[in-house]
Every structure is written in C-alpha cells, then in structure tokens.
User: Which sequence fits this backbone?
C-alpha cells in the first residue's frame, strides 16, 4: 500500500534560505505525482516537516529563489501584506477571498461576497464583532499572563464557509511556545502550498511575524517549525527546478 501513500519527509536547516532549497530537493527526489485543481498535469507532492534552527539568520532567501527575491528583496511587498494588511481592501472588494493579515488580525470579519454565497445556499452564518477578532493581540495578552501556556495559537480557518466558497487559506494554524522565559518557538501548519514559488516568501514573512511577537514579549525567536500536508511542485515549474539544480551543480554548490 505504500505506493498509494503520500511520502512523509523531514528537512532540517539552519536558515530559511537553506530550508527552501533543501525542501525543493527533498520533494523533487521523493514526491508522489498527484492530480491538482490548477493544472491538467500532475504535480510532485509530499507531506513535509521542516525544522529551521536559526530562522532570522541570513541568507533568509536562497540565491536561486527568484520569486522570493522579487517579493522580499526587491519589491518588499509580501511581508507588508502579511504584517500590515496592505491588500486587505481587496477582500472587501471581492477580488480576493482572504489575506493572512485579515484572518489573523480580523478573524471572522464579514466578507460581502462570501455572505451572498452563503445566504443564497441557506447556509449558517457566524456573527462576530464588525472588525472581527484580533487573534494576535489575544495571543500576546495570553502570553504575558501565562508564559508557560501551551495554547498560544491562532487560526485562519473559518469552518462555516471555507469548505463552501472558493479560495480557502493555505496557512491553517500558528502555535507558539516560550522556553526558559527568554526564547520563542514558532510552528506553522499549512494544508496546501506551492513549494517552488510560494514557500520562500511564506517562510520569510512568518519568521517576521514571529520576530514581531517575540519583540512585543521581550523574547528571542530561536526556532521555526513548518508543517505542510500537501507541499507540491507544479509540472509547469519542472524545467525551472531542473535548471536551478544544474546551475548550482555547475557552481559547485551542494544541496
């Protein structure tokens, strides 16, 4: 039955940049070909746990990760989207189904387009304060009150609608643990994710979120753990992935 199962992979890395290339290599070598919603051809896929021991150390973006280099190093847009909510207005306009900032800082806030769909199907609605629930502030307050708590977590999932409308968040949950009254550990759980073109930017922004929370608590972020149920490389990116490995090999860089 193993041939029908998803591979379960473990990757250890010191930096987020190293984590990206090691994880691409792990899924490239060991991933299972699986169908997907976005392309006719199957993608390579695995369930992957990545442990990053020094998430704020450079290089935080791998030299071969051109998408994250653009999003993080050149335009510097993605982190602002996550931490500052710079594109939350697109959710209200109906152009986007969600943003991580909206789901973390304004969880449950009404989305007109979603409400219309739910009402048309006579599906239940959930009432929350007009601006939603600021989970990040709740979490920081709880951490200050009880720094040994094991329930320091936030979630993005909206169970009354995310299985009923198109466009559900890939990030599901973030969990934190404080150790020795000095250090912060951060773990994220993702249901589905584009490894080659999204993982690098995701991890960079999540580490920045962890640093922001650590700073608010007077702590140091020392570990980032990243679990993806479906971490995949799309067939349309196969040639680019092969090109990355060939270029690194020519330069004598081992993965």
Assistant:
């Amino acid at each position: 039955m193993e041939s029908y199962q998803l591979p379960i992979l473990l990757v250890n890395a010191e930096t987020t940049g190293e984590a990206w290339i090691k994880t691409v290599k792990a899924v490239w070598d060991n991933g299972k070909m699986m169908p997907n919603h976005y392309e006719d051809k199957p993608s390579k896929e695995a369930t992957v746990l990545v442990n990053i021991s020094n998430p704020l150390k450079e290089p935080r973006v791998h030299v071969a990760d051109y998408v994250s280099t653009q999003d993080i190093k050149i335009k510097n847009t993605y982190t602002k989207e996550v931490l500052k909510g710079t594109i939350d207005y697109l959710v209200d306009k109906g152009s986007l189904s969600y943003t991580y900032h909206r789901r973390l800082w304004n969880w449950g806030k009404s989305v007109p387009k979603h409400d219309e769909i739910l009402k048309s199907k006579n599906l239940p609605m959930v009432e929350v304060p007009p601006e939603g629930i600021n989970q990040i502030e709740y979490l920081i307050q709880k951490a200050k009150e009880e720094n040994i708590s094991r329930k320091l977590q936030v979630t993005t999932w909206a169970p009354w609608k995310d299985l009923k409308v198109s466009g559900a968040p890939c990030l599901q949950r973030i969990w934190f643990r404080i150790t020795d009254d000095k250090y912060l550990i951060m773990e994220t759980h993702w249901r589905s994710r584009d490894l080659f073109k999204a993982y690098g930017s995701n991890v960079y922004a999540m580490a920045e979120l962890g640093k922001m929370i650590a700073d608010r608590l007077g702590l140091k972020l020392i570990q980032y753990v990243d679990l993806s149920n479906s971490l995949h490389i799309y067939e349309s990116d196969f040639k680019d992935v092969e090109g990355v490995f060939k270029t690194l090999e020519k330069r004598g860089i081992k993965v």
